[in-house]
Amino acid sequence: MRISGMLLLAIWLIATGLLALVDVNVPYSDLVLALLAIAAGALLLFNQGKLKVKGNLGMIALALFLILTGLLPLLKLDFPGSGLILALLAIAAGVLILLRR
């Protein structure tokens, strides 16, 4: 069974939203969310083996956002401006995806 990046993205979005709304401490939720984000981003970026750059800049930006969102906390990386970079990347991805529609 092939799992698509969009399916993992949907799961990541739902889980992230639910955990933010519900005041419950779920063991290893940060690790699971980070791994989901990395997997979704990687699958979106490589489109299951075929990198398609032309016309997909929004999806590429989204994939990079997801990978960085997962890697930074997982590897305990923090550098000045990392939040700003992620925010700008998220905005760029959203605008590019909307423009493509």
In a nutshell, what does this entry contain?
The protein has 101 residues and is mainly alpha-helical.
Kindly name the structural category. mainly alpha
Overall mean pLDDT stands at: 85
Which value, in Å, is the CA radius of gyration?
14 Å
Strand percentage lies at under 5%
3D architecture notes:
The chain has 101 residues and is mostly helical. It has one domain. It contains 4 helices and no strands. The radius of gyration is 14 Å and the shape is globular.
Looking at this protein, list some descriptive labels.
single chain; 101 residues; mainly alpha; 71% helix; 0% strand; globular
Write the layout of secondary structure elements.
Elements: H1 5-21, H2 29-46, H3 57-74, H4 82-100
Helix pairs in contact: 1-2, 2-3, 3-4
